[in-house]
Structures are given as structure tokens and as C-alpha cells.
Amino acid sequence: MSIEITGVPGLPEVKPGDDLAALITAALPDLRDGDVLVVTSKIVSKAEGRIVKADDREAAIDAEAVRVVARRGRTRIVETRQGLVMAAAGVDASNTAPGTVLLLPEDPDASARALRAALPKRVAVLISDTFGRPWRAGQTDVAIGAAGLEPLDDFRGRTDPHGNLLEATVTAIADEIAAAAELAKGKLDGVPVAVVRGLSHLVTDADGPGASAIVRGAADDLFRFGGAELLHARRTIREFTDEPVDGEKVRRAVSAALTAPAPHHTTPWRFVLLESPEIRAKLLDAMRDAWRADLEADRFTEQSITKRLSRGDVLRRAPYLVIPCLDTEAGQHAYPDARRGAAEREMFLVSTGAAVQNLLVGLTAENLASCWVSSTMFCRPTVREVLDLPDSWDPMGTVAVGHAAAPPRDRPVRLPDAFLEVR
């Protein structure tokens, strides 16, 4: 196979409202059927008026980002509204007028489709941008928009020349073409478009799924959070979808919980996984009855009782429950006096809190939502009886687990100053 990649010089400075198709056609009069055009996102952004003042750069990043994946110093790696994970949400100060920055196209796939439709030949259009990559130094161009080309080539189910079945190979064709085209465009040469020839067999009549098909979904993303951001990503979620929870993901989160520190080289935590809807309902009904009996004994009104019992509804809405327990026979030392006995107990309680936090963070890493509720601590005998637990297992609340029904609301960063006393 022979492939020819040529930069397209002669394009003028692009301004908001310019007709990109007309500008490219004038600069490339020999455009042919079967060509693949690779267009730098910057000129698409300029034509679409995606320009803001440089003073508003941080605000622009905030507006374009849906979550922070990682940060180091002033550098933020974020997920954009388009689903792309990149530095500074793609807000770029290069190759634009002083005092301005460029935002990514609002919908790069739609931009690619519109440009393709306006060109006079049967071509494919890729819109490219520059990305850094995990575990690799340097940057390379990738496709953030695509039309007229299948962005992925799936080899799974085929065999190699040795007869081996391919089970994981999916080639990102659009990204490979975008990276190769950058060699002909260059970073400083003022050539924002390249034409690739020799790939006409990849050009399709239909626009295709677009470059959004390359974006890995959250459920399949093993590296959804940077290490420093994972703790901040853990949120309390009280509304869940009906999507079932993968028990293996919960078990991996329990493995994370087991890394918590514990006194005397013990492992004093136990985790009860309630995967059966019938068992969950039986437990929650029994807990409700126990709470009601306590509230009635306290002479609460029926209205107040109903309101207080409704706080446990989050557990009924969750498709999966985990009950962390402290095993009081797992190594606590006995002391003859109350002071040291209480300290020993508190030491193990703190350790259990660390294990619960690790569990919650582990669930977040598995893209599962969770909510810790203290309910089981108020009716421990009931929980032990319904679940047939040993008397030494002390339930430490319940963790509701599921898939979030909606993204969590933003919360301000808590600065540590108000919580510090430095000596």
C-alpha cells in the first residue's frame, strides 16, 4: 500500500463566519474523490467563532469541563463536554491572535459532517487536535471529529497469519491518520490542512459514527481518575438507576478496603454483601420495624416517625447493599480498667472507619456510586438476627451501591486552613 500525505498551503487567516469548504477548495483545486482531509481543529473553531478573551481562560476551562481527572500545579487534565479527556479542556492560546484563546468546536463530529457535505468531492473529513498520552512523553494529533470514514477497525474474531485468534485488537484508524497528517502540516508552518491519498477504500458513503466512537465509555475506563483526584471524586449519591451492580466490582472494592491500617496486625473487618433482593427487603423491613418501635417508645408523633423512617429509603432505592462490620473478637486486647478498654475499642473503630473509606473510594474507582448510611448501627441485634451473623460482628452502617441516576452536583473545594491548628 502506498499512502501520500501532503500539506495544503495557501489558506488565509480564518475568521469567524468564514466558509471553510470554499477556502479549502480554493487552496486545493485538485481535490479528488477518495481523499481524506485532515483539518486542524483551530481553524474550525475560528470559523465557528469559538474565541474568548485570554483573561477568561480559567473560566473557559471550567465551562468546558465536566470533571477534573487529574491536576498537577496549575495544569488540569479534564473531561470535556464532548467526552474528551485532555489538558485544559483543549482551551488553546497557540495560533490565535494575542489576547485570545480558542475553544474546541462545539460538536467536532457535526463540524466534520457539515464540512464534508459542503465539499465538491466524495471525501472523508477528520478534525484533529493535539493530545498528550498516559505513560508516554510528548504529544501527537488525534481525531476529535470524523465524517465519511469508520474511525475504528475491529480485528476481533479474525486470525493472524499463524492462526491465532485476535481477541482484543481494535485499531484507531482515524487517530493514526490524524497523527500521520500532522507530519505534513507541522506545528509552526501555518499549514492547518493536509490531504491523505491512498486510503480511498476507507472512505464511505455514509458519514459514519464519528470520532465520538473512539471515546472510551466510563464503564470501560480503567483509568478514569488520576490518583490525586480519586479521593475528591468520591461523592455521596442517594439516587440510583435500575442497572444491576457487577458483584466482581464490589469485591475489588472490598480488596481496597482490606488495605486499611489496623491495630496489632489484625484484620478486624468483615463485609456482608447483600446481592439478593429478597434478603435486602427482609432486612430493611425488620430494621424499619425496630426503628419504629424505638421512636414510638420515645413518644414521637406519627408524622415525625414517618419522616425519620423515610431517611432509610435510600437503601431501598439501591440495587446492592454492603454492610461493613467490626469483628470484636479479631484481636482486641483486654484491659482491667475502663479508660484503656475504651481506648482499645476506639482504636479498632477508627480502623474500621478507614476500611469503610477505602471501600467507598474503591467503589468510585470502579465507576460505582455509593452512600454510607449509619442505620444498622441503631439496630445491631436485628441485623445480626436477620442475616444470621456471629454475635462478635458489629454492623457499622450500610453502604448503598449502584449507578448514579444523575451526575453529582459540583461542590466547592474545601481549603484546609479552617481545619488546621499548626504548632
TrEMBL record:
SUPFAM superfamilies listed in its UniProt record: CofE-like, FMN-dependent nitroreductase-like
Alphabetic keyword roster: GTP-binding, Ligase, Magnesium, Manganese, Metal-binding, Multifunctional enzyme, Nucleotide-binding, Oxidoreductase, Potassium
GO molecular function: coenzyme F420-0:L-glutamate ligase activity; GTP binding; metal ion binding; oxidoreductase activity
Coenzyme F420:L-glutamate ligase-like domain sequence ranges: 11-198
UniProt entry tagged with the keyword Membrane: no
Domain Nitroreductase, first and last residues per copy: 233-403
InterPro entries noted in UniProt: F420-0_g-glutamyl_ligase (IPR008225), F420-0_gamma-glut_ligase-dom (IPR002847), F420_FbiB_C (IPR019943), Nitroreductase (IPR029479), Nitroreductase-like (IPR000415)
Name of the featured protein: Coenzyme F420-0 gamma-glutamyl ligase
